[in-house]
Each structure stands twice: as C-alpha cells, then as structure tokens.
Amino acid sequence: MKTSDLFVKALENEGVEYIFGIPGEENLDFLNSMQGSSIKLILTRHEQGAGFMAATYGRLTGKPGVCLATLGPGATNFVTPAAYAQLGGMPMMMITGQKPIKESKQGQFQIIDIVTMMRPITKFTKQVVHGNNISSTVREAFRIAVEERPGAVHIELPEDIAAEEAEDHVYAIERIRRPDADNNAIDNAIKMIKNAKMPLLLIGAGANRKRSSQALTQFVEKTGIPFFNTQMGKGVIDERHDAYLGTAALSDHDYLHCAIDRADLIINVGHDVIEKPPFFMAEGGSKVIHVNFSPAQIDAVYFPQLNVVGDIATTIHRLEQALTPQDHWDFSYYYRVKEEVNTRLSKYSEDDRFPVLPQSAVSVIREELNEDGILTLDNGVYKVWFARNYPCYQNNSLLLDNALATMGAGLPSAMLAKLINPDRKVISVCGDGGFMMNSQEMETAVRLGLDMVVIILNDNAYGMIKWKQEGMGFNNFGLDYNNPDFVKYAESYGATGHRPTSHADFQSILRKALDSKGVHLIELAVDYSLNHSILNEGLKEKICII
Asked: Hey, which bits of 23-106 come out as E strands?
C-alpha cells in the first residue's frame, strides 16, 4: 500500500481517534489516505490551537494526542504546543510535511530543518526516509510519548515518501507495566514517615491520574496525614477533605507556607522541578521523600533525601498498607494554619462590587459549575486566585499550565475537554490578552457544535505583568491596550455573547449559559486593584500563628 495509507493504518492501530490540524499541500497524500479512516480530522484555525488540543487530549486520556501541519511556518507554529506538552508531561505526537527529499522541485522554498528544530523540545523526532520504516517509527514514537515522563514526539513525512509504496505491516502494541519501587526504598520511606513528628503530604502534577488519586485518598484516610498540592496537582484528592490545607499557588510567603515551614518531613508525590516550586528546600530544613515515576532532578531548591522511584499508585498503596497513625504525630498546628488560610481566602469571595474582584469571580464559578464540571484556565494573574481559592473535587477538573505557563492554550484545551466529555459542563476562563492569542478557535468550537462557556476577564491590559511591575516598584508603563467588542466578536462566529453589568447579572448569565446549547462568551469586567496590596504587601507583612 501507499506509505501515507500505511501511516494512517499505523495510527488506527494505536487507537487514534482524532487528528487536529491544518494540512498543507505537502500533507495531501496523507489527507487523502484519511478518507474512510476511523480517525476524525478536526480542522483548526491555527496550528497552535491544534497542538494545544492534542496535548490536552494526552493530558486527559494518557494516550498521545495527534496533530498535523505542513512544512515551514506550519511546523514552526507547533513549537509552543510542543514545549507545552513536553514541560507539562502530556503525551502528544506532531506530524509535519516536507518537500521531496529525493529530488528538489522548488529549491529551498519554505524549507528549514524541522527535525533539528524539534530536538530540544521533544522526546523523539525523526524524518521518514523510506515507507517500510513508517510502522516501526510510529510504534516507537507512541511508546516514547507515553513512557515516563510523558511528552511530545514528532514525525516528518516528506511528500515523495508519502506517495511511495510500502509493505503492509503494523506492529502489535505491547503494554509495558511500570516497575514497582525498590523494597529498600519503601522500607526507608516507612521509617522516615514513622519517625517524623509532623509529616506533610504534597501532591504534584505527576499524581494527577485516576489510580494515583484513589491510592492517595486511601493513604490520607488511613494515616490522617494532612496534604497540600501544587497548582497542577489540584483535585487529586477532593479538596473538601478535612485534611486538605490548601494549594501552593505561590512559591513562598503565603499563609499555607507557615505549615510547610513547620513540617519536619514532606512526602512529595508526583512533583518535579519543571513546575513552579511549591516551596524552597534549605540545608538543615525539612527532609523530603521524592515519590515519582522517575528520580528527582536535583536543583538548588530541590535535593530530596530519599527517592522512591516506581509506579506512584503502587508505591502509595504499599506505604498505606504499612503505616498507621503514630501517637507522636502532631497535626494541631497544621489545622490552625488551615483555619487562617480559609479565613484569608474567604475574604472578598462574597464581595458584590462591579467590576468583579477575581476572588468573587472564582466563588461564583465554583458555585455554578457542578461537581464533575471541567474548568480550563489560560495564563494570567487570575490563575493565582483560582489556584488558591477554587476547590477541586475531582482529578483533572481544573486544567491549568504551571510548567510552560503559556498564553493562548485555555480556549483550545476547553474545546478538547468538551469534545471528549460531551456530558460534562466545561468553562474556559481567559484573560483578554490570552484569549486574543487564539480567539479564532471560536469558529472551530462553533463548527464542532460544542456546548461550552468562555469567560473573558477583561482589564484591557496584560494584568499579570502589571501586577509584577507594581510589585517591583516600577511605574505603570507599556501594558495597556484596547480590545474589540467581545460580544459582537462572539456573535460574528455564531456564538452567543454576553456582557454582565453587575455581580448578580454575571451569576445569572453564567447559570443560564451553562444550561444552554452552543458556545457562550461572557465578557466580564475585572478589578485587579487589590492584587498588589493582598499578594505583595499583605503577604510580606504576615506573621505565622503560634
């Protein structure tokens, strides 16, 4: 069969459901081979949108999401999604086209070395030079993409190779069982936990999976050890749990850090140094047990005393089986800190001023979105408020990026979440800056018939950088801009636009939009004027309770 036919067959063999992308002329053999395939082509309006959707598919399913682009500018537009998936631990495959490699027909027009470009930001990148290699290349790429730590892979298919004939053969998929942790490491961890006086559990992004979620919930239920999480570890354990202390939305100086600083042992599950640090280690400070699929990457702020390397869920189950609450454990201080954290976070959550405070917007969204609803965030200062103030009830029910922290991913990730979870409510919260970076995907969302809500927190500025600018004592300069009429903008795509005029109006509109068909965009005026006084000045002046 033709190489492009075999490529599609190999992808079907891997269980691929969707390919997201924008084909070019160098992809036409591949596109023709997709006709009649079980794989659905999701045409997007920018390659970034396709890449973010593919990465989010990998994040939510554990299987590589697949995206397609042409050569040159199409392939270069995959760079940011590739880094997004690579840093975020999301399995994703990118397929790009290329001019003929055996005989040039257009000189160097549009040609750059995409394979070399992809090498620093992927786990695997390869150009196919013979059709008979396509099946093994696809199988190997998929294996590497899901192997711990998951990430991005790339295959380049030149158009002359795509048109060649190849032997009809695909490789059987062998599921590889993740190894269990070493018995000595488990024993040492048990001893350290038993001997600690104030152990504390930290949950990171690597644990944001169903098996790990179940194992960690059972661990906390049995041992009673309090826990906190990183931004990307939210929801692994239901955050309504009595033992939940809070989320480390900032790296230090938050009220939660009073508890972290008092711990003599931190059991750090699923976190690595790619995500923004939830705390800083110091010589002579808290000891740390690193529990993950891979050993710890040593950093100036992270140098754990013990590595327990293996399948996370199995490791936690073994620890849970061996541990019981110890008489000398004392968690009373943690719960005093929890009361302080809750008191601080509840302030302004019911404030009904308009434009809305971010804390109040978080409260309304949590109240109106049902328990299994999915919320995706773009990147902006509001992410800090959602990480601190938004309680998650299920794993992967809040999708945010605290690794690459790129703007422009919020809308495409929400579209993917709704596409594969049609029975769950989905909200995308974006800043006005981040939304405009991939706002054209509104057309894709409408064309796909998705029922979802997009909330734009509008301050007519790059609010995150303005907050940082003020925190550094600089004058307000260079970060304000004008926006389109977002209601008319939504309507131009066939979506429904809303512009609340009060706090109560926002809550009413959101409630109705969540129960309505189609894409609904809510332009919500936001007031960030308290960011500096609360997150900069107030936290610097905090005094940890006795």
From this structure: 40-43, 65-69, 92-98
Helix (H) or strand (E) holding 3: helix 3-13
Judge contact between 101 and 114, C-beta under 8 A: no
Q: Amino acid identity of 389?
A: N
For residue 500, cis peptide bond before it (omega within 30 degrees of 0): no
For the chain, counts of helices (H) and of strands (E):
23, 18
pTM exceeds cut of 0.85? yes
- The number of angstroms, rounded, from the C-alpha of 495 to the middle of its chain's C-alpha atoms is 26
Sign of CA dihedral 13, 16, 17, 21: negative
* pLDDT recorded at residue 535: 92
- 365-389 pLDDT, tens digit each: 999 999 999 999 999 999 999 999 9
Query: Which residues have CB under 8 Å from 40's CB, separation 6+?
Result: 17, 18, 19
State the helix-helix crossing angle for 134-146 and 3-13, rounded to 10 degrees.
Answer: 30
For residue 174, what pLDDT is reported? 87
Look up the CATH superfamily of 3-163: Thiamin diphosphate (ThDP)-binding fold, Pyr/PP domains (3.40.50.970)
Lowest mean pLDDT among 92-96, 149-153, 271-275: 271-275
* pLDDT tier, 497 (very low <50, low <70, confident <90, very high otherwise): very high
What separation in angstroms does the CA of 57 have from each of 89, 102, 231, 292, 418? 12, 35, 19, 22, 11
Do 157 and 4 touch, CB atoms closer than 8 A?
Answer: yes
Residue 103 pLDDT grade (very low, low, confident, very high; cuts 50, 70, 90): confident
Question: How many C-beta atoms surround the C-beta of residue 471 within 10 A?
Answer: 14
Phi and psi based region of residue 98 (left: phi greater than 0; alpha: psi -120 to 50; beta: remaining)? beta
534 secondary structure, DSSP code: I
- pLDDT score of 312: 96
CATH topology of domain 348-536: Rossmann fold (3.40.50)
| N residues, the chain | 546
Listed in order, the ranges of the chain carrying CATH 3.40.50.1220 are 183-340
For residue 317, give the amino acid letter. H
Task: Provide the token pair at 23.
Answer: 């084909």
Please tell us whether the domain made up of 183-340 is placed in CATH 3.40.50.10540: no
Which residues are registered as beta bridge partners of 268?
202, 290
Through-space distance between the first and last CA atoms of the chain, rounded to whole angstroms: 74
Cα(151)–Cα(145) distance, integer angstroms = 5
Identity of the residue numbered 181:
A
In this structure, what are the phi and psi dihedrals at residue 93, rounded to the nearest 5 degrees? -115, 130
The pair phi, psi for residue 26, each rounded to 5°, is: -75, -10
User: Residues with Cβ < 8 Å from 157, sequence gap 6 or more?
Assistant: 3, 4, 7, 27, 30, 95, 96, 97, 98, 128, 134
Pairing of strands 65-69, 92-98: parallel
Q: Which helix (H) or strand (E) holds 309?
A: strand 306-309
Measured distance CA(445)–CA(440) in Å, rounded: 9
